[in-house]
Amino acid sequence: MAKFSINKQYLLSLALVFLLVHPASAVLAAVRPNILIINSYNADAQGTSNNISEFMDEYRRLGGTENVVIENMNCQSFQESPKWKGRMQAILDKYIHSLRPRLIVLVGQEAFISYQSQENPLLKDIPVICGMVSRRIIDLPVDSARAANWQPRSIDVSDGKVRYPIRGGYLYNYDVDANISLIRKLYPQTKNIAFLSDNSYGGVALQAFVRQEMTKYEDLRLIQLDGRHHTLYTIVDELRSLPPHTVLLIGAWKIDAKGEFFMRNASYVMMDANPELPVFTLSNAGFGSWALGGVMPTYFIFGRSLAREAVEVLEKPKNYDMKANFVENQMMFDYIRVNDRKLSLNVLNGNDYRFINKPLTLYEQYKYHLWAFVAFLLFLVIGFISSLWFFLRTKKLKDSLEVSEQELRVAKEAAEEASRLKSSFLANISHEIRTPLNAIVGFSEVLLGGGYTPEEQKQYMSIIQRNSDLLLKLINDIIEVSTLESENVEFKYQECDVVEFCNQLLLSLNFADSSENHFRFASSLESYVAKVEVQYLQQVILNLLSNADKFTKQGTITLEVSVNQSFIEFAVADTGCGIPQEKQQVVFERFIKLNDFAQGTGLGLSICKLIIQKWGGEIWVDPAYSKGARFVFTHPIVK
């Protein structure tokens, strides 16, 4: 005992000396997670990530300075649910005994029920708020073998029957009665309700709630399509064999019996199995792709609201009046599905409901084009006034310099040059805008006249839209030229694999383009990483590819990349009509078009040249290429 006492004193002395020498260590040891966020899933999940990110942003905006720690349980299928209690216990053991948090935030139903299953008396004094949790929960099974056939009873969180009360947050209040009422109004001959749920905790909890609620309806038979016993392929067989007068109510379908995750495309597979089956949704699963509609929660990113509640709980920890909020339900329909089935919603007797996928009005479809057209007209008026002002100013300057013959000659030449540039600009711009502007004005007057079929109106509006796009592109090109000529352009170089970059560019172009030409990539390099201006490099390459596509009919367009000692060389070659040798230098001038009947502003190649010169490269037409036209440009290798 004496020896142990001496050693203990010795160790305590060493610890005291260490804290005196390193006082920062004592501070670090005292840091605790004042707010502990326990998330059911991996933090990379989209919904979870958005909510936690919004929570953190709002909490800091409100002046929160507490230390926040995030723990993830990585919960997946229901078969592994017996393990969740242990995972939660392992998380809590890290903090509860020595570094007890002031607030715990539970995100997701798995985290919520795992927390409620704990038997730790220290948890009773820690306030809890939650999100992404249903009002109706179930207990966890004791082992994985039992989980597959577990038929638990539904528990109402709001009844106060949970072990650790909730001081705030948001609960989804799924409404089976409202959905059954809606189904009976739209399909009064219904005899069977088939309920589809998946192999997740949420799916099994919804199944238990629906099973409990359906006991009220003796005239309706409940058919359970349980994802714990089915894969996507076996559930399709079940859907095909459903009896007549059956309506499907979807709860959830993300995880099947094998633990495989499914996204939106699973809805289309199941829809094809029984296309005539009426489908409604309790939780918005399948909504927008398969389901007609339903009464469902109005899901939203609640992170900011949860942060405000967290601040209130931390400021008033003894305010036991705070309770979780129920997320409001909303009756919603898919406009396309309702119209396909020719359903009349008049039987709803004025019930408030909303549509998705409803077509936009004519103004909603084309309001940006109309605004762009008005803005363009305003731009022309301002340009005309500015040009008139410059002209009058030049004339005044010319009159004032008549005192000296030499000065008069200089002033006259300057005025003639300014007039020539102005006239050239107005002539070029007028030539470019005349055709689309005439088309817009002409077909606008035709539409105002009325008396046309919907197909003719659609055709006229398409012409107006196409010509509006041409006018907008002309304005954008002029602004681009002006920007590049200014000194305010800053290139942002970043490392990029130029070979992979070009491959991806051509891949997206081949996928999206309706051209009859074949786009290909040629390079002796498998990979080459360099610092380049990615945004402007993409703009130059796309401009050259688009230009080649315009003057090539059913041919081949090739993008080439090679590397020299100090620069990367790019080339775009086509098998089109080509460029006469005497015209190969002037094609880079503004408003130069070798074919006046070809669509375009004549500014594309000029913009490419300005960009390339800005980053210190060169661009030219290859005079030795005879199969069409071949444009070559360089990008310096940035050290």
UniProtKB/TrEMBL annotation:
It catalyses: ATP + protein L-histidine = ADP + protein N-phospho-L-histidine. The keyword Transmembrane applies. GO terms for cellular component: membrane. GO terms for molecular function: ATP binding; phosphorelay sensor kinase activity. Residues 1-29 form the signal peptide. Keywords: ATP-binding, Coiled coil, Kinase, Membrane, Nucleotide-binding, Phosphoprotein, Signal, Transferase, Transmembrane, Transmembrane helix, Two-component regulatory system. The chain crosses the membrane at residues 368-392. PANTHER family: HISTIDINE KINASE, TWO-COMPONENT HISTIDINE KINASE. This is histidine kinase.
